[in-house]
# Entry
Amino acid sequence: MFYVVYNNQTGNLVDVTDSIPSLQESSYSIKAFDTAYPDLYYYKWDNTLLSFVPKSNIDRQITVHEFLSRFTAIERITIKEAAKTNPALADYMEMLYQASFVDPDSPELYGGLYYLTILGLITQDRIPALVA
# Structure
């Protein structure tokens, strides 16, 4: 058994614990679950359902290294060089490097890839191979 503390107004997850928490704020609620604590690699908190739900397309998630390996060496080097003078690209790449995994179906990923095409760093016909 475990307990979840969430915000009454937003449904946002505040805490997860295996002991009954004491509430300090009236805007929080507690919900008890009779199951084992969910593996957060496979499950996420749903603010509407107020429950843990399976992450969509979990089988498509890949490591950052695997994703970057889909680029050619020339593409990777060109992108790294361009990021030295383009703060928006540098920020996007830093976010990618800090990620635990890459979801090939993520709109944010597609946005970044299309940005690379706008900069002329990859061609648009490369995108399907990068997200396959």
About this structure: The radius of gyration is 20 Å.
